[in-house]
């Protein structure tokens, strides 16, 4: 037990002795020395077992928020490792030999990729929105359509973040319909500091609906010199329509439509580490960078390194082959079918059925990619799932029509053997 250190070992032994004392008082027999040491060893193992561990995602949800969103590319991982195992030039200008800015690192890549004047990376997109609203519109009025007062998940609501920033919310339009004249009228009636648009990341509206385009909103706002902040949520640099999915608005389109600031997540469709990214007009960005909140929500060096490496994949036109999220989205149904059939052949049980994978992560609600699933007939699929979740490397599948199913699309190729072994051992 020496590997646990003196303090922890002592704590475990004391705790076991306490347990034994209360057990003995209730008439339970005194254990021997081996029993006591065994109980202490078990306690120690539990105490030091990591709670945050890697799992295998066989659920078919590509950007699964509960499973840590985007897996990193090999290059992103390597970059994070190389700046974190030693020192780095995080805030050091190697050329000048003096203090530099951490913002310079991913910033150049972001402006090159998007054409924006300036860029800023913070902790996550919620922080990006909070920072933009606080720095630009604290105690001032911010216009937003009622159809965009969305809840993202985990209780994160756009109106709450807006209130938190100290901005005064001016809601316009109805839940299902907002018109350009609503924007016009609100801006005529009162001084507006900022117009915000939030992407409806996780639900779709159908039926009697109307909403002006971003370009139209920008046009009206700019005519009275009011800037527009576009919260894209996921944000993507690649057109999802290429893969038979609905078109998710791209960052480049938002900028082309005239949005003054565009913010999005690093770990949704971008496929990088957790980060919030803001791109846009340099005069506004300067205000954001100078605001005290920017320091409180800044990105750390691991995220900056991994993000830069991820962005480089886009710059080098290799996103679809190098970024796991895009490799999964771009995998053809035939690719997935072959993998599923390979699994079934290897196992000697289970069958392959067609099904659907989803993109997830607050993007493309209701949209799915045709896929092939390994399905396993088990009398108690819940129990099977539970066993698979209890493994040292948990395997997360899903239950569909009372059957356990596993989608190869979201399983990294190097993890396939672990899935197969897990299924073999637990059936
Ligand atoms: C996901 C999302 C956010 C929050 O982004 P995080 O990176 O999770 O903080 C904010 N706004 C929209 C529209 C989103 O979809």
Helix-strand blueprint:
Blueprint: H1 6-25, H2 33-48, E1 56-57, E2 61-63, H3 74-84, E3 92-93, E4 98-99, H4 104-114, E5 118-122, H5 125-137, E6 141-145, E7 151-153, E8 156-157, H6 158-164, E9 168-172, H7 180-189, E10 194-198, H8 214-223, E11 228-233, H9 251-256, E12 261-265, E13 276-280, H10 282-290, H11 292-296, H12 301-315, H13 319-322, H14 324-330, H15 333-347, E14 351-360, E15 369-376, H16 381-389, E16 395-396, E17 398-400, E18 403-406, H17 416-425
Bound molecules: pyridoxal-5'-phosphate.
Pyridoxal-5'-phosphate (PLP) binds at residues 124-126, 129, 152, 198-199, 201, 231, 233-234, 265, 276, 362.
What this model shows, in words?
The protein is of the alpha/beta class and 427 residues long. It folds into three domains: 47 residues; 112 residues, Aspartate Aminotransferase, domain 1 (Alpha-Beta Complex), CATH 3.90.1150.180; 246 residues, Aspartate Aminotransferase, domain 2. Helices cover 42% and strands 18% of the residues. It contains 17 helices and 18 strands. The strands form five sheets. A seven-stranded mixed sheet has the order 5-13-12-11-10-6-9, with helices on both faces. It has a five-stranded mixed sheet with strand order 2-14-15-18-17. It has a two-stranded parallel sheet with strand order 1-16. β11, α9 and β12 form a beta-alpha-beta unit. α1 crosses α2, α4 packs parallel to α12 and α5 packs across α10. The chain is globular. The model has no long low-confidence stretch (mean pLDDT 95). The site of pyridoxal-5'-phosphate has 14 residues, from α5 and β11. Pyridoxal-5'-phosphate binds next to α5 and β11.
């Amino acid at each position: 037990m020496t590997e646990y250190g003196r303090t922890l070992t002592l704590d475990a032994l004391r705790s076991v002795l306490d347990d034994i004392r209360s057990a003995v008082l209730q008439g339970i027999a005194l254990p021997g020395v081996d029993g006591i040491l065994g109980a202490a060893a078990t306690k120690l193992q539990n105490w030091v077992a990591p709670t945050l561990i890697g799992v295998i995602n066989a659920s078919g949800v590509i950007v699964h928020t509960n499973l840590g969103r985007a897996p990193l590319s090999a290059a992103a991982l390597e970059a994070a490792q190389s700046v974190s195992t030693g020192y780095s030039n995080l805030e050091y200008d190697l050329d000048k030999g003096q203090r530099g800015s951490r913002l310079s690192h991913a910033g150049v890549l972001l402006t090159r990729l998007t054409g924006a004047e300036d860029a800023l990376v913070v902790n996550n997109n919620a922080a990006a929105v909070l920072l933009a609203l606080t720095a630009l519109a604290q105690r001032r009025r911010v216009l937003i359509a009622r159809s965009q007062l969305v809840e993202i998940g985990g209780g994160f609501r756009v109106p709450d973040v807006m209130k938190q920033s100290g901005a005064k919310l001016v809601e316009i339009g109805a839940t299902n319909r907002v018109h350009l004249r609503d924007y016009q009228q609100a801006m005529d009636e009162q001084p507006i500091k900022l117009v915000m648009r939030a992407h409806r990341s996780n639900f779709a509206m159908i039926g009697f609906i109307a909403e002006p385009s971003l370009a139209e909103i920008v046009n009206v706002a700019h005519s009275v010199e009011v800037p527009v902040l576009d919260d894209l949520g996921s944000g993507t640099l690649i057109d999802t329509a290429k893969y038979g999915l609905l078109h998710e608005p791209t960052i480049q389109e938002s900028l082309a439509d005239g949005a003054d600031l565009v913010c999005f997540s690093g770990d949704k469709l971008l496929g990088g580490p957790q980060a919030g990214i803001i791109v846009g007009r340099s005069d506004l960005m300067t205000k954001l960078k100078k605001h005290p909140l920017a320091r409180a929500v800044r990105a750390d060096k691991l995220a900056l390194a991994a993000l830069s490496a991820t962005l480089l994949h886009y710059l080098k036109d290799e996103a679809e082959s190098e970024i796991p999220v895009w490799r999964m989205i771009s995998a053809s149904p035939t690719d997935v079918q072959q993998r599923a059939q390979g699994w079934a052949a290897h196992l000697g049980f289970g069958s392959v059925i067609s099904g659907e994978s989803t993109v997830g992560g607050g993007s493309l609600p209701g949209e799915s990619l045709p896929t092939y699933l390994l399905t396993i007939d088990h009398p108690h699929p819940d129990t099977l799932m539970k066993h698979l979740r209890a493994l040292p490397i948990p395997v997360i599948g899903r239950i569909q029509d009372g059957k356990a199913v596993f989608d190869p699309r979201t399983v990294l190729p190097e993890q396939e053997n672990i899935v197969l072994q897990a299924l073999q051992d637990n059936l």
